[in-house]
Amino acid sequence: MALFGNAHTVDPGKAAQEYARLLGQGEQIYGAYQLIRDTLLFTDRRLILVDKQGMTGKKVEYHSIPYRSISHFSVETAGHFDLDAELKIWISSSTTPIQKTFTKGVDIYQVQAILTQFVAR
């Protein structure tokens, strides 16, 4: 399923090892999702978007979004014919949401619960 650009679940422990240099002292990853070469990391402090660029993917952009910057978000569950779930996140400084698509195997309610826990602080 990842061939079509849809996110799938990654073990948070493995993600913490792979991206340890990005994390602050005591920062924990609560959810991690891979989208072909890109990755979404939901920590207890922020959302990190890992964007591998170019043909080789050696150039990487790390976009850190503090949860306090998220004005609102929406999730759309998978249906019978549309097998993918969608997440949209609006940042307070932008009218265009960040959009990510998840395969049917990802629990979109878990993604929503992580965001609710940290955005509502």
List the helices and strands and how they pair.
Elements: E1 8-10, H1 12-18, E2 29-35, E3 38-43, E4 46-53, E5 59-66, E6 70-76, E7 85-91, E8 98-102, H2 108-119
Antiparallel strand pairs: 1-2, 2-3, 3-4, 4-5, 6-7, 7-8
Pfam families: bPH_1
Protein name: PH domain-containing protein
Domain Bacterial Pleckstrin homology: 3-119
What does this protein look like?
With 121 residues, this protein is of the alpha+beta class. It has one domain: PH-domain like (Roll). It contains two helices and eight strands. It has helices at residues 12-18, 108-119, and strands at residues 8-10, 29-35, 38-43, 46-53, 59-66, 70-76, 85-91, 98-102. A five-stranded antiparallel β-sheet has the order 1-2-3-4-5, with helices on both faces. Strands 6-7-8 form a three-stranded antiparallel β-sheet, with helices on one face. A hairpin with a 6-residue loop joins strand 7 (85-91) and strand 8 (98-102). The radius of gyration is 14 Å and the shape is globular. The model has no long low-confidence stretch (mean pLDDT 86).
List keywords for this structure.
16% helix; PH domain-containing protein; 5-stranded antiparallel beta sheet; globular; PHb; 3-stranded antiparallel beta sheet; 2 helices; 121 residues; PH-domain like; alpha+beta; PHb_sf
* Major pleated sheet: 5 strands, antiparallel
Rg, Cα atoms, Å:
14 Å
- Sheet/helix structural class: alpha+beta
Strands, total number: 8
How large a portion of the residues is in β-strands, by DSSP E? 35-45%
**Strand adjacency order, main sheet:** 1-2-3-4-5
Shape: globular
The helix count comes to 2
Compressed to H and E, one letter per element, the order equals EHEEEEEEEH
CATH architectural name: Roll
Distance from N terminus to C terminus (CA atoms, Å) equals 34 Å
Question: Regions with pLDDT < 50 over 5+ consecutive residues?
Answer: none
* CATH class annotation: Mainly Beta
Mean pLDDT: 86
Helical residues, percent = 10-25%
- The fourth-level CATH homologous superfamily is Bacterial Pleckstrin homology domain
